Every structure is written in structure tokens, then in C-alpha cells.
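Re: the 256-residue chain
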Amino acid sequence: MSILKIKNLHKRFQNNVVLDGIDLEVNKGDIIGIVGPSGTGKSTLLRSINLLEKPEEGTISLDDITVELPLRGGNRKNITELRKRTGMVFQKFYLFEHKTALENVMEGLVTVRKKTKKEAEEIALKELESVGLLEWKNHYPKHMSGGQQQRVAIARTLAMKPDIIFLDEPTSALDPELVTEVLGTIKKIADEGYTMLLVSHEMDFIRKISNRVLFLDGGKIIEDGTPAEVFEHPKTERAREFFKKMNTLREPDYYI
């Protein structure tokens, strides 16, 4: 069952066309990995769907909510509802430094969802436990590793019960030894049935977790298929060239 429909989405920064007529349909429960060269619009696509960036043209529909672009005054209510029903996990963690892990997860529940503090605390504790950080509930971000901070950010997103979660390079700001714990958390929530769009350079992870992979180049989706189809049998020369380079980078320069 379709949950998200994107039609003819266009986004430019001055003379640079970043999204060039994107059409995309996402089904409930899809885990979609988005890959491709740097600067081809992957992060902009996620940010445009929940309108952190403002596309110049197109239509975004999430279930019964539709936003027509360019944005006009009559869209404001729909914009607010769309953002309430989507969750975003960024490269950076964007935690409140003066609030504990528990308070960070509670914040949106109180200010946006209008939960009581007691209700918000119950939900926040549950989500911190789900990401393995219940014992860290009273710690401040400065006392946590980058991996722990990102898991708090994920708990914060889950607490809002979004219909769809966007993850924009969630491990790119982490030291290599911390990447695995965050990927494990993402795998866990994927297994729980969340619908997710994931931009990442962690190709092996994308291959394992996704049921569908998109390859973006020049602001267009040039590959759309299963992980096996896109990674092993890409249809376009551009994708074949990209994966060949990626595989070359992973191979050692010498053998002993």
C-alpha cells in the first residue's frame, strides 16, 4: 500500500539544478536505500520531502495530506501535518546540550504532541530502552559518545511515532568504531516495520537492509530496483562506473 507519492519534484540552488523532476512512490514498510555520487541530490531529496528545503515545483502526498509546490499560504496547515508525520535523523545530532538524554527525547512530545510530562517521560524511557540507552537517561550530550548521541536522536524520532523516517547519512559524523552500534539500531527499527528512506555511503549495509535501492545522478533517479538488481546488474553506464570505482576503493593495493 502506497504511503508516499512524489511527482515532478524540482529543486535548484541558484543556477544549479539539484532535483530534476523526481517521481517516487513509497509503499508502507519499504526500506529504501538511496545511493549515488556526492552532490547528486540525495540529501536534498530527503530535506525537500519534509520541506526543510522548499522545492520550486512538484507535489508531495503522504497518505491523505497533499502539498502543492511552489508553496503558498493555503498549504501551511498541510505542511505542519506532513512534518508531524515524518521523522528526520540528520548527520549531526542536534541535541539540546543543556538537556539530558531523557529531556531531549521528551521535548517534541511536550511541545509538538502536547503530551503531559508524565506521558512524555513514559514514552521517552521506552524509546531510550529500545536503543539501548536507558542507563544513560540522565546524562548530558557532552558526556556521551557520538554513537550514543546519534542513538538518542533516533530515540527522539521514534518517540514521535512518524509514518516515515528519513535518515540522512546518520553515521557520517561518527568515528569508525562507533558506526556499527548506530547501524545496529537502524537495523532494529527497520525490523520493527518502520517505513524508511536512508541516504548512506555504507554500501554493504544498504544492500543488506533495503528491499529497494535508488541510484541518483544529476538530480534524477537513474536506477530503481532491488539491491541485487541495482548493485549487481545496474542498467546504466553511470551506475556501473560508480560501483566499479567503489569496489576498487575497497580492494587492497597489495597482497601478502
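The radius of gyration is 19 Å.
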